[in-house]
Structures are given as structure tokens and as C-alpha cells.
Amino acid sequence: MKIWVPCDAAAVACGADEVAAALASAAGLRGEEVEIVRNGTRGMIWLEPLVEIERDGVRHGFGPMEPEDVPALFEGGDHPKALGPIEEIPFFAKQTRLTFARCGRTDPLSLADYEADEGWQGLKRALELGGAQTIEEVTTSGLRGRGGAGFPTGIKWKTVAGAEAPQKYIVCNADEGDSGSFADRMLMEGDPYCLIEGMAIAGLAVGATKGFIYVRSEYPHAIRTLNAAIKAARAAGIIGDSLMGQGPAFDLEVRVGAGAYICGEETSLLNSLEGKRGMVRAKPPLPALEGAFGKPTVVNNVLSLAAVPWILVHGGAAYAEFGLGRSRGTIPIQIAGNVKHGGLFETGFGMSLGTLVNEIGGGTASGRPFKAVQVGGPLGAYHGPDDFDLPVCYEAFADQGGLVGHAGFVVHDDSADMLALARYAMEFCAIESCGKCTPCRIGAVRGIETLDRVAAGDPAAIELLHELCEVMEKGSLCAMGGFTPYPVRSAIRLFPQEFSLSQEAAE
Amino acid sequence: MTEDDRLAAILADHAGREGALLPILHDVQAAYGCVPADCYQPIADALRLSRAEVAGVVSFYHDFRDAPAGKHVVKLCRAEACQSMGGTEMIARLERALGMKVGETKGDVTLEAVYCLGLCACAPAAMVGDQLVGRATPERIEALVAEVSA
Ligand SMILES: Cc1cc2nc3c(=O)[nH]c(=O)nc-3n(C[C@H](O)[C@H](O)[C@H](O)COP(=O)(O)O)c2cc1C
Ligand code: SF4
Ligand code: FES
């Protein structure tokens, strides 16, 4: 009997290791031959630990499992946690899994699994096409940076390819600091070779022989998996002195962050990689021309790079068939917080916010009425039911004074305290500001004080807060200070009474 | 091995590496439990930096400590997804139960805030030592703390 138990950090946090141990001992007691595979997660986190058992060639799911539920798996008959064929669960069946096609199906570190499932085919194609045509394919796909800013990946690669330098770098941004985001982590833990392949293709395309993956220190599992995967890929001759024994050299190294959210901003990340304080750099120079150690550098998010193997195998045009408007391809949406069905949902751009929250997410976890959803991390705006028609794509959210960002969606029920959340946004900015510019460094602290005055009923404070937001938005060097006003102002706009009640009470 | 030998070994491990300062600081902290101020000068010398530069980098990053934490570090996520699932109340209850605040060390235990562990779909989240905790409750964390410090 073959049994899968995810090794993903979220599954482990919910008890997957205990379930795996219970499986091994139950099988031992019964003298049953079982093979336990630790796969990545399917992304249906509310069902974790989600165990899968193959029956007649179809994988059936059971979850959320607890050690007590294990013996019944061997007893036949109906299991109380049985979910049926895993890929028929609506949350899974409704997705378009391109980037996450393998994640959850395979043993993340098995090279055999990877090869059997389209692995290294994209790199092979890139080796045949050569750099210029590989970039052409990525440009045709319409792929835009999944780290938040949405910059076209093909154009970035072309700039780096065109730069003359003895050394160039590929830097993968795996700093994933946004609350509500975990897609990078899920991919690194569940399908690390896919990221390695994407980076190798990028290296080949632009003429870079060295890549760094900058991972936040909060992700120890991902760091371990990546290091093991790099070692295995090198031993198999896929990366190293020559890509697949026929291409140029390309090697990889994992670098670990040190608990600074701002190091997700690409220039701050580069400073950190160089061993400096993670201060944001003014642009220009663009990292594409003067990036890591002053050399031309591609900085891309994990998901941008991991989308590339599929694009090379199936063609840029096939990728561009998914999506809406100028947002092409698929977006791995992370729906989290107070939601019944939290997890990763990869789909073409264009699904409406309401469908996502109510149908896919299944409404709130608490069963209380929905209040607001924050989209795009701590710098993203809050959206209420009035925005439920908004399609998930870069343009539509920007038009509403918000952002899709890294596509983390955090749902709040009606117990959410919007004044407290607005205050938290300012507090987070104050804690994580790199300190380079005044509107952000000082403004965030003033923001906390001003919100405290609002809470205390000071009638002049709201006006002051708006002015402060204006200064931060206009005068900050990067989006840390520049977008912190988004959650604050949207909270006030959606729930003005929560910012004036105390004032009325005081009067 | 003396203290100095340990530091020398770490510096030798990273000799010639580009951008070696953060990896060195991580190793130093793993060895000593913190980055002691008397390491700044030897690190600076090895990387041909000024002592002030090293001190500046250490102070910039939240991870680096100037004194060792308690033997058991409990990290509690304060970010939005965890707040939406009652994380703030959970932290407050845990603080009361343990008789200490986030940011403090009492006996063997250090309570710390963390801003997202990537466990936002099984919030609230925490980390007790190396162990991740999803769908966390104060009772569960207290039990884990009791387990590790027993
Ligand atoms: C405050 C701030 C935090 C950021 N955090 C991240 C992050 O954690 N991961 C990421 O990929 N990009 C992050 N970005 C965006 C990066 O600066 C950059 O646009 C991105 O890494 C480029 O890669 P892409 O084109 O593939 O998206 C952040 C930007 C800002 C302003
Ligand atoms: S806005 Fe804030 S984080 Fe960005 S450069 Fe200015 S001080 Fe640094
Ligand atoms: S917000 Fe707490 S784990 Fe992400």
C-alpha cells in the first residue's frame, strides 16, 4: 500500500509528522507492507494533515487526519475522514495548476518523480532554443513578476541579456514576508526542482552562471529542502559546471535573510545579499544593470521563475491563453485568515473577488458574517462586499486604489476591529521601515500616535491622519512607506463609523 | 575549542565568499546564542570592514541578538491572518498564563513576536523551538513549553 503524508510546513504545523508516525506503527503492528511518501501539500490547508492512499490507480484523500484516525484506514469500510478521489474535490478540480502542477503529487526531492512529470523538459527546450529565443518565449507568455510589482519578466531578462559584463547573477526573491502569503514556501518545499529549473533557464537566457535564492529565516523547512535539492541536482549533473552536461555553467546557493520584511524589496535584498544593512537603494541604476555586487542581475520572485519551465515546455502562447486583459497566465492565489477553505488556489487571472471569498473560500471560518478582505499583504487595501465584482487582475485592483501584490487574500469576519488593524499597519511600517526616508521612518510612528488620538476621540485627528497618509504616499522612496496608507485609508473609507464612534461618545 | 578558535573556524569557513557577512553572523549566533560585541572587530578584520559597519549590520536585522535568548524560544505570529483568527487574544491569554509579556525572557522561556510564518491558512500560528504550531491555542503552546522545558 502506498500512502502519502505531506511534509509541507503547514501540514507539519497541523500534525502531519505525528500522523506519519502513527501510520508507520499501525502498519508495523498489522504486518502490512506500506510505503509512506512525504509529498508536498496539495494546498488544501484546511484539510491538513491530508493523507492520500492509492486505490485502483486513483489517489483518495483523508483529512484532516489525527493519529486516532489512523487505525481505521486499515480496517476497510467507510472512514469518517474520507474525502473521495483527491483531484475531484471541488477546490482542487476548479483550479488551473500550471506552476503547481506537480506540487502535492510528488516526493519533492525525488529526481525520478520530477523527471517522470515533465521535469527538466523546459530546460532542455531552452538549451535547444538558445538565450534569445528563450527570452522571446517568456515575453510571448505575457508573464509579469509575481512578487508584487507586476513588471514583465521577458523585458527584464532582455535588459540583463543585453548588458555586457564578465559576471551576471540570477537572484530569486524568496523573502515572502506578506501576511497571507505562502505560495513561495509551498513551492520551495513541494517542488524545489521546478524553481531550480526556472533559475537555470533564466541563467542560460541572460548569460548568468551563478544564482542566489534569498530565503527568509522564518522558513527553515524550505531552506533545508532547497539545500538538499540543489545538492541532488548538482550530483545528477543538471546544474554545476555545465547545465545538463551540454550547456554553460550554472550553480546555485541559498542565502538566508535575518528577519527584515524590507529585504523583500529588491534593492534592499541586494544590499542584504552583499552583507550590508538592508537599506533600499534609489533607482536608477536598475538592478538589471547594476544589481548584486554591482553586476547585471535578474531579480525575480519564486513564482515568476517557477512559471518558466511550463512556459518553455508548452510555449509562451499557451500560457498567454489564460488570464484577463494585460494580466496573462495563472496566478497562485493564497486565501487565508478567517476563511473556511484556506489554501492555495491557482487559476487564470479574472476570477471575481466574491467568487473567491464565498465559493472557493466557503465564507468565514467562524461562520460569522464577512467583513473585509485585505489583498496583497500588509501594504494592500481592505475590500468590502462592494468590491466583490472586481476580477483578480493587476489593473482592476490598481484602479480601486489597491493591489493584487503577491496574491495573498486575508479574510476577516465582523468581529474585526478596523481601527486596530489600521493601527497595526502603521506599527508594522514603523517596525520594518529601513529608515532611509523621513515620511516612512517618522510618518509611521506619527501614524500610530494619530490613530491613538482617533481612538481617544480627538476630533481633529482624522484630518491629520489623512494629511499624513498623503505625505507618506507621495514622499516615500519605496512602497513600504508609500503603500502603508492603503490599508489605513481603505479601512476608514469602508468603516468610517469605527473611526468616529469614540469621538461621538466623547462629545 | 576556545571561544576565539570557534570564531576563527567560522571565519575560515567563509573565507573568500562573496557577501559573507550575513552567513557569518548566522553561524556566530548559532554557536554563541547571540552575536557578542567582542566578535565585531575580528569579523571586521576578516572582511576588511570597519567595526562600525559590522555593528550597523547586526543592529539592522531583527534576528541578531546581543544577548542569548532563553533555552526555549516561543515565536508568536502577530500578523493580519493570525489576527483574523483571534491571534491577538491568544497571545494575551498566553501572556497571562505564563506570567510574562512578548519580548521578555523568564527562566528558560523567551516569548517573541514574529510577523508571518507562512502558516496563514492554519492560523493562528506559532513556533516553539523548532516545532511549528498551526491552529494554535494557548493551551497547546503551554503544553509544548512544558514538554520542552521538562
Ligand atoms: C516593501 C516591499 C516588500 C517586498 N517584498 C517582496 C517579497 O517578499 N517577495 C518578492 O518577490 N517581491 C517583493 N517585493 C517586490 C520586489 O521589490 C521586486 O519587485 C520583485 O522581487 C521582482 O520580481 P518579480 O518581477 O518576479 O516580481 C517587495 C517590494 C516592496 C516595496
Ligand atoms: S519608504 Fe520606508 S522602507 Fe522604503 S526606502 Fe523609505 S524608509 Fe526605507
Ligand atoms: S499571518 Fe501568521 S502565519 Fe502568516
Automatic annotation (TrEMBL), chain A:
Keywords: 4Fe-4S, Iron, Iron-sulfur, Metal-binding. Pfam families: Complex1_51K (PF01512), NADH_4Fe-4S (PF10589). Its cofactor is FMN. It comes from the Bacteria. Residues 419-464 form the NADH-ubiquinone oxidoreductase 51kDa subunit iron-sulphur binding domain. Belongs to the complex I 51 kDa subunit family. This is Formate dehydrogenase.
UniProtKB/TrEMBL annotation, chain B:
The keyword Iron-sulfur applies. It comes from Thioclava sediminum. The keyword Iron-sulfur applies. CDD domains: TRX_Fd_NuoE (cd03064). Keywords: 2Fe-2S, Iron, Iron-sulfur, Metal-binding. Belongs to the complex I 24 kDa subunit family. This is Formate dehydrogenase subunit gamma. InterPro entries: NADP_DH_HndA-like, NuoE-like, NuoE_dom, NuoE_N, Thioredoxin-like_sf.
